[in-house]
Design brief:
Helix content: 25-40%
Radius of gyration: 15 Å
Order of helices and strands: EHEEHEEEEHEH
Number of helices: 4
Distance between the termini: 45 Å
Oligomer: single chain
Structural class: alpha/beta
């Protein structure tokens, strides 16, 4: 029998945190909100929030063996001198992650992308080299 229920719930706390994060005014630096899946409860929860964090430090903070959804407010310097702060969705899914968690993560991916309303998406499978400032710049400036 087919089930129409969502595998992983995006609870109201996560939705509110994302909305608040999305509408914060920033004048410099990168900020990030990290969402993880609580496997036992089958729901998303806010894992961490960072203000003015470098991409290298963000990579250090992310787990090497567990998937996460990351929404990044990225300080982008355009070639014409303008600065903007686009929202970037990072699908952090290291290939060394547990299969069960990867399945849950993948099953909720499209729902989370819809709720996050980010401008661009970056897929990261290789935690060591998959996310750098250069990769984000390239993705956003092309």
């Amino acid at each position: 029998m087919a089930s129409t229920a969502r595998t992983v719930d995006i609870n109201e706390d996560v939705t509110k945190a994302l909305r608040k994060f999305r509408f914060q005014r920033r004048s410099q630096g990168h900020a990030a909100i990290i969402i993880k899946i609580n496997k036992a409860a089958l729901k998303m929860v806010v894992d961490e929030e960072y203000d003015d964090i470098s991409i290298a430090d963000l990579v250090e903070e992310l787990p090497q063996n567990s998937p996460r959804y990351v929404v990044l407010s990225y300080e982008l310097k355009h070639r014409d001198g303008r600065t903007s702060f686009p929202l970037v969705f990072i699908n952090w899914a290291p290939s060394s992650s547990e299969t069960t968690m990867m399945t849950l993560h993948a099953s909720a991916l499209l729902d989370f992308q819809r709720v996050a309303e980010a401008n661009k998406t970056i897929e990261v499978r290789d935690a060591e080299e998959g996310l750098t400032k250069e990769i984000v710049d390239e993705k956003l400036l092309t």
